[in-house]
Structures are given as C-alpha cells and as structure tokens.
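We read letters as residues; the integers encode the fold. Take this protein.
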Amino acid sequence: MLSTLTKCPKNVILPVYLKILICIVLLISFSTPVLAQQETDENPFANFETIILPNGLKIWYKYLPNDTNVSISVNIPYGSDQDPIGKEELAHFTEHMLFSDHLGRTEEQIKKEIEDLGGIRNAITFFDHTFYFVRINKKHAPFALDWLYKVISPHEMNEQVVERQREPIALEVGARPRELFDWIKVYYLSSPWLKQPDFWGREFGEQAFPTRDDYPYQSLNQITAKDLKEFYDTYYTPTAMTLTIIGDIDRSKMLEQVNATFANLASRTAPQLLTKTNDPGRFWQQYKWDIRPSVSYYNAFKIYNLTQKELLGLMFISQFLQNRLNDRLRFGDRKATYGFGVSVAQRSPIALLQIYGNLKESEYNFARELIDKEIEALRKATLTDQEFETEKAIIIRKLKVTNSKAQDLENWANYRFYNTQHHKDFPDVVKVFEAITKTDIETLANQYLVNNRQMLEVSSISPLSQGQIFIIVALLLILSTAATKQYLLKPLNMSNLRYVARFQMSLAVRLLMLLGFLGLIIILGQIFLLLYHFVAYKFTLQIENFWLQWLIYSLIGMIGVFLFITLLAYWPSKLLLFKNAIAIKYLSYRAVIIPIDTIKDVSLQKFPSVWLSRRLWKCLPLTLGLFTPGIYLNLNNGWSYFFQIRDKEEFLNLLTELQQKESKQ
C-alpha cells in the first residue's frame, strides 16, 4: 500500500523536489484516516453497546477483533448480604448448585464441556454480587453462550444433589463443628453482648451491616432445597442480570444465540435493596504495636451512596495517588516501602478509598507526612497544570495498555460496574479520565478526602522484644500479687494460737462451692471483659503512644489479678483458735477475726436443723451434716458458720474454756 501511495504519474514532467513534496502530501492525506482509526482503537473501553432484551436482561457487548479469546459473564447484583440470619452461605450454596447436575448432565460433564475445549469457567460470590464467567477461544463462543445460559437457567434444587454439594462447600469455607474452646470463645470471650460493632457496622451502620454469628457448619446444615429454590427465584431474575460479551463475536450471530437462550428466562420483578447506611461523621484512628518487621499503614476515606461519576473520579484519584506515592516512597532517594497501594473497595452502596502498605520504621514519619501532603494537594489543587496533565497522561496510557484483552475488560464488569442501579451502560473509562480536570478532582477531594470521613489504622513495631515483654508481664504479675496480699493480709498474733484445724468438706459441698465460684468468676469475668473492650475501643486504641497504651493495659491487667485473688479470698480454708478470738483463714491471704465475746452460741447440729430451717439464712454452710453433726457457730450480728473439723470435741472443749476465762475477765 505504501508503494502505491508514493508512486508519481509518469507523463508529467516535474522537478524532483516537487515530486517528493507531492508524494509526501499524498502519503499524509491517505494515511490520516488510518492513524485516526488506530487512535480510536487504542481505547479498549470505547464502543461498548448496551442491549436490553424483552425480559429485562441487559447485555453489554464489545466487539474485540484482536483477541483470540472471548469472555462471557453474567452478573447477579445480589450476594451474601442477602443471606438470611442463621442461613449464612445461602448465596454461596446457590452458586454451587448452578454448576451441579442439570438438564441430564452431571456436575463433572458440565465442567468438562468447557475445560475439554481449553476454556475456563467459574463463579464468585461476593458480599453484594455474584459473578459467573467463562473464557474460551473465540471459535467456541456460541457454545459458551449456550453453556452459560444452561448454568444460569432455573434449577430444580434436587434434595439429593443439595446433600452432595453440602460437603464441598463445607470444605471450601473450613466449616466444622465447634468444640469446647470454640464455644468459650464465641459465647464468653467474644459473646454477642461484649462485642463492639465490627468495621462495617461501626463505620456504615449496624442496620445496613448487622453483626452475625459466623458459624458456617451450623448455617450450612440448616439450608434446605426449598431455601435454595426461594433464593434463586427471588434474586436470579433477568431484570437484574447483566450479560457481558467481549471478544471477536459477530453481533448478529451473538444476538441470534442470545435470543435462543437468555431471552427465554422468565421475567420477574427484581427485589429492591433496602440497605440504609449511616454516616457517623467522625474521624476514627487506631494504633497497635506488634512483633513485626515493618509498620503496617492503612488509611481510608468513606463514601456513602456511591454514584457512577464518583466511582470513576475516585478510581482516577487512586491511580493518581498510587503513582505519586510510589515515585517518592518506593523509587525515590528514601526507600520507605517495597510498594504502596491505593485502591477503591466497594460494597454497595458504599465505597472506601484505601491507602495502604508496609513502611520502614525509620521512614514512617516521612511517609505519613508525604501522604498527608499529597492528599492536601488534591484538596487545594496546588499541583501545577503541567504536573496534573503529565500524571493524567501516564494514567490513561497505562489504562489502555493493561485493558487490551477481553479478560481485562471482564474484570471491570466483575469488580467495578456490577451495581446495575448506577451503571446502566458500560462506562468509557478512558474518555472519562481524559475529560477529568484538576477542578473536578479538587471538588471530589474536598467532598470525600476529609477528616470526618477518614479512618487511620497503624500497626507499629513493638519497642520491646518478646523476652522483655515476658519479663515485664511477670514483674507486673508479681507486683499486683504482692499489692493484693498487702491489702488482704491481716497480721495475727501467733503466740496466742491454741488450736488449728482444716475445714473438712464433703465432695458434694466442694462441688457446690466450686460451681458457685465458677459462676461468679464467669459473671465477673464478663463484666471485666466488657469494660476492657469498651475502654480499648473507645479510648486506648486511639492513643498514639506505646507507653501510655501499655500503662493503661497494665493497670487493667493488675486490676484483673487483684479481682481474681480477692475472689479466692472468699473460699474458707482453715479455722484458728486464739486466746480471745477465732480466725477464719481463706485461700488467699484473707482472714476474718471473730472475737470470742461476739459468739452468741455454739452447738452440734445435723442437716434438717440447719439446711431446712431459718438457721440457713446468713449462714456459711461448709458441710451438709447428713451423717455426723457439724458445728453451728452463731454470732451476735446474725451471721453463722456450719462446718466440720477433724476433732470437734477438742475444739468445743477448748472454746468453752476460753469463753469462761473471757467471761471472768
């Protein structure tokens, strides 16, 4: 073609330089449309066509002649967020069922139909959508369309097939029955009433994202064939589906195939999502210290009720920031990180602009200051026009290069444009990015990249080694034990000691006391954990100072040790008789002194006279007294003790003798 364009007429006599000039003009004039066409073709997002079938199903079709493979996918804009409480994994289970036995074919046959042709097929269940796809050589595109239609088409949800699928899902999600320590963790250490709101509930509202008890084994086994059928009939409606076809597929043949398959799906009204988010309108920060090699940095900005325009603007900002931050933090003179990421995470109808990476400890302050400056530069539009346009050109070039294949464009339908309420047409991302101005970014940054939408979480390197932490914890344990001992211990004049005996408690009494103590420990432990979680969540984790955090946690730990030892100080252990008093010694340091002159009466009693009478009121019963009588010690203040010791007669005689001496004095 080039030789034809440069060939000059033979019969015209012209100077050589004029011939050359004419040829150049002809070359430019003929080649301009080609160059323009090439420039147009460089935009992989251009020329997406939206087609709506009579049953409401939407098709995004892109003719891509330069790719040997085609990507065909179906997006369902509902996912695990639609799982009923108690039947989590229902959306995931439905996904598995659509690949199982259907239309006379087994699950293995369905799988091999695509894979034997060299294709790839799968599906993914997300929080807010479910995505089915098949990628295959373009010559098998009609077959792949028919195959995917059969996968998506209504299934019987046969009970035998449901039972066969239950186990693979359990293996995939790691479902297993809870054991002792699992139950303790779920209903004691992390019981529902102790839990603070999780990330989604805290930042976007418990009504929109309620906290659930994640017990896959139980929820999977509660899902029935009827549940699966109802979920499919409710959410798998063509009025909500998007069929994306990208590749070298002739439009007329594609439509012919679609009309023979997907157009046959029965139309139903798509359920409306009633998710109502709540913006707390406040800055959130959290600081932790771990034994780790680097500082983990995570900074995010929250966006509520995301629109398509906002999503594309945030995607531009994410690429813009990622390029600039990596240029300075990774490839600049100061090697602060191996790589820094900036991305947009979505969960309809909200999103997060996330800035994250692992930083060298010595460069943390520099990196954090640089990140804040870059965000501030977007808000105040302090970058020069040349800087902005240069960065924008780089982003657009990368966008074109990295999205030249059918699979690349399919990923946008999967991870970005799955919200059918926001994305009626497949956006021309390149065109949108080319039209973005510095003012547009300034407006968006001032709306969303602000303090009251920000979450900052930093995990730093602990300044203490594991050995140092162990030593400090041991010292704190010793110190708190010593302080508790000093508080509880009362000195006794052992020179006046006349008699010592251990309380003799039957197995039944010990078990009753043990159960009582365990119940008390459980109740007090829950209260203590509630206070700990509340203090950590509301106050401690937001302190950007390791030593102050450690001081608070140390005090909480020492209080816990104090309470535990104090609780043990109410388990009676020994009886000590002195010249003028009785002492009840408890397990941990505590002793209760009973002056002899405060004893109202002492006698031997059996079970009915104590346990079945008013004597049990304000009494510490340490024996049942079923077979042998126990000592009933009644005080002037109304309190009493009922107990057994080794030699009751010796104790009673000695007590009587001391009482008589006390009376004479």
